[in-house]
TrEMBL record:
GO terms for molecular function: RNA binding; structural constituent of ribosome. This is Small ribosomal subunit protein uS5m. The keyword rRNA-binding does not apply. The keyword Mitochondrion applies. The lineage of its organism: Eukaryota, Fungi, Dikarya, Ascomycota, Pezizomycotina. Belongs to the universal ribosomal protein uS5 family. One of its GO terms (cellular component) is mitochondrial small ribosomal subunit. Residues 1-55 are annotated as: Disordered. GO terms for biological process: translation. It is found in: Mitochondrion. Residues 172-235 form the S5 DRBM domain. Component of the mitochondrial ribosome (mitoribosome), a dedicated translation machinery responsible for the synthesis of mitochondrial genome-encoded proteins, including at least some of the essential transmembrane subunits of the mitochondrial respiratory chain. The mitoribosomes are attached to the mitochondrial inner membrane and translation products are cotranslationally integrated into the membrane. InterPro entries: Ribosomal_Su5_D2-typ_SF, Ribosomal_uS5, Ribosomal_uS5_C, Ribosomal_uS5_N, Ribsml_uS5_D2-typ_fold_subgr.
Length: 335
């Protein structure tokens, strides 16, 4: 043993299995070290020789040879070193003041780990991944190969990048929201192009917007639709019909406010927010746009507000609370 923890400490340990229970909360400042240390309060009485009973108790932890070597080692140390050493404080001010068992994971407070499994209606469900779209197997039928070659090239490219099949991409709801001409002044003169902003969604929690610019109007629409499908992201919905609480956001000079509404309220918004809500799958929503009503910024503000929702489960987990939706659990959404 060393001078910091002598062999006598084993004799002062409580019996194994015993606990010192008390209802008095610990005082973190009980044994706080003072600025000017007092040597008398940190000294211990000089040790006394071991008795035969104490040596027999030490035999429970060590063999006879180990006890003899430990006693020889302690006898080689001057007892004054034990007498003048500083006693270790009983309270650690940096110790975690937790009463819970930190070796187990709490289902609410602790973040889940490992592979996440979401239900089909969950807003964070992963996009469906079809392996046969990435590499066409040699065993595919002739009809499938002929239909794949007849699809537009941009649809096949979107299918490879997103994981959706061409049939699923055709079933997506798309809409051109903004379309106007723009002019770029260069040294060669004025170059006129067509600008388009499109929205795409599956009506079940996925929505995205995209922009496209080209000389031809059809090409600009295709580019905008292509980018909107690629930019689709999941958006949380409350009861698959409205948003989680009211949202307030500012993009540029546009100040947008979205309000969650009860069932049967409908969509009472502007035409741009209406189309975005339809592509997302919202049925009860109202909005108010103040100051600027630029169509492009209104669309961008709506998407940014929908993606910045704070879920009640996340807020409850951060506060260490347990959240129960009364309407869903007790009334099954009937009230």
């Amino acid at each position: 043993m060393n001078a910091v923890r002598p062999l006598r400490r084993l004799l002062q340990m409580p019996p194994r299995g015993a606990r010192q229970l008390t209802t008095t909360p610990p005082n973190p400042y009980r044994n706080r070290r003072r600025l000017k240390a007092e040597p008398e309060s940190y000294t211990t009485p000089p040790p006394t020789p071991y008795t035969s009973g104490e040596i027999s108790k030490l035999s429970k932890y060590y063999t006879n040879d180990q006890v003899a070597s430990l006693l020889e080692g302690e006898s080689a140390i001057d007892p004054a070193h034990f007498h003048n050493r500083r006693r270790q404080p009983d309270h650690d001010p940096m110790k975690l003041q937790y009463f819970d068992d930190l070796s187990t994971l709490d289902p609410i407070l602790d973040s889940p780990w490992g592979p996440q499994i979401y239900t089909p209606g969950h807003p964070l469900q992963p996009l469906p991944r079809l392996d046969h779209l990435l590499t066409l197997s040699a065993s595919s039928s002739t009809a499938t190969a002929s239909s794949a070659t007849s699809d537009p090239p941009w649809m096949r490219e979107v299918s490879l990048k997103t994981g959706f099949s061409v049939a699923e991409i055709r079933r997506l709801r798309t809409k051109i929201l903004v379309s106007h001409s723009v002019v770029n002044q260069t040294r060669m003169g004025k170059i006129r192009k067509i600008y388009c902003l499109s929205v795409a969604g599956n009506g079940n929690g996925l929505v995205g917007i995209g922009e496209g610019k080209s000389v031809e109007h059809s090409e600009a629409q295709r580019m905008a639709t292509y980018m909107a499908i690629r930019n689709m992201m999941p958006v949380p919905r409350y009861e698959d019909r409205t948003i989680f609480g009211n949202l307030d956001i500012k993009v540029g000079a546009v100040e947008l406010k979205l309000f969650s509404r009860p069932p049967g309220f409908g969509l009472r918004t502007s035409q741009y927010i209406f189309e975005i809500a339809k592509c997302l799958g919202l049925s009860d929503l109202s909005a108010k746009v103040s100051r600027s009503r630029n169509p492009m910024n209104v669309c961008k503000a709506t998407i940014q507000a929908l993606r910045s929702q704070k879920l009640p489960e996340t807020i409850a987990r951060g506060r260490g609370k347990k959240l129960v939706d009364v309407r869903k659990v007790y009334y099954n959404g009937a009230v």
